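Input (structure):
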């Protein structure tokens, strides 16, 4: 599985990396521009904000609104870019298993056609993953209200043990749900299913091979996390250099413009490092999961002959989706 993912990246790195770089680069540029606007507003009002005493509410509200709008816009843009990449990876894998090339334009069109279903699937997966933790928090709050009225300290220790046990129970449940529905993003593209149908289909495919899917997926995500950390480390070190080299030797305090310049350089390098790390972390784990989907269908639904027949055809046949009569 891992070798197949690396070979797919090696053969199709131009459309995959090009699309990821274009989308994440656009989001990064948007965030850098927003941060520059906010920092320029801070520089213009630095004397008022750092004056002795508490700043007026009228001076803080516009900055809070600007930061809030920047976070919301950046989050929406990142979610949209992430969904397109998550759809583009299975599209590329479709052509890879058939041994056919794919161009940037075709990859973009086919990925964009599934982006809204991918967003819905991503949101549902996040909600399902959070269900055990939400149940644990609700149970804990109810226990706090009923078992320790009036701040009775005798009930604190049992509640601490209850919290630890509840957390230990919630983590395995969340992991089990995550693996059970992990193939849903690939199903959205391969079989053109909606979010709910994709979740059902993933549960069906994972049902008899949960541990194998868990182990291979976990290894892929660990590798991506380590690679992303190693990529970001040099940029973070570079971001600390300006602050270390610009420390005044005379003991005078740096000006507001100098502080904002240092903060801006650190934020800029952090965004660039995240962009570079995401080029790998957004492509490699979904490729491994997609190969797990193909493997599960080959083992349980005899997908091999269908792929062999499809490799000689230009259009993708309908049989590439679920076999006729197979439960959805």
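Output (sequence):
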């Amino acid at each position: 599985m891992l070798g197949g993912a690396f070979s797919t990246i090696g053969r199709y790195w131009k459309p995959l990396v090009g699309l990821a770089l274009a989308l994440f680069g656009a989001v990064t540029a948007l965030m850098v521009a927003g941060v520059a606007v906010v920092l320029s507003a801070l520089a213009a009002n630095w004397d008022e904000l750092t004056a002795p005493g508490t700043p007026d509410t009228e001076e803080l509200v516009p900055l809070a609104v600007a930061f809030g709008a920047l976070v919301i816009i950046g989050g929406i843009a990142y979610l949209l870019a992430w969904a397109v990449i998550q759809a583009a990876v299975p599209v590329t894998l479709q052509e890879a298993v058939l041994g056919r090339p794919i161009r940037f334009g075709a990859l973009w069109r086919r990925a964009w056609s599934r982006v809204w279903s991918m967003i819905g699937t991503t949101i549902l997966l996040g909600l399902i993953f959070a269900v055990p933790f939400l149940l644990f928090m609700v149970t804990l709050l109810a226990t706090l209200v009923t078992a320790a009225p009036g701040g009775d300290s005798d009930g604190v220790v049992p509640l601490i043990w209850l919290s630890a046990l509840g957390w230990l129970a919630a983590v395995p449940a969340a992991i089990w749900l995550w693996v059970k529905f992990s193939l849903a993003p690939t199903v959205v593209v391969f079989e053109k299913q909606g979010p709910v149908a994709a979740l059902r289909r993933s549960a069906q495919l994972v049902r008899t091979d949960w541990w194998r899917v868990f182990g291979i997926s976990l290894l892929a995500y660990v590798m991506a996390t380590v690679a992303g950390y190693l990529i970001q480390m040099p940029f973070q070190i570079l971001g600390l250099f300006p602050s270390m080299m610009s420390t005044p030797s005379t003991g005078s305090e740096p000006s507001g413009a100098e502080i904002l310049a240092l903060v801006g350089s650190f934020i800029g390098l952090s965004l660039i490092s995240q962009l570079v790390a995401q080029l790998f972390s957004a492509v490699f784990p979904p490729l491994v999961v997609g190969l797990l989907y193909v493997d599960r269908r080959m083992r349980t639904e005899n997908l091999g002959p269908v792929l062999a027949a499809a490799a000689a055809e230009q259009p993708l046949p309908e049989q590439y989706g679920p076999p006729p009569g197979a439960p959805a």
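Notes: Residues 199 and 328 are 10 Å apart (CA to CA). The chain has a mean pLDDT of 77.
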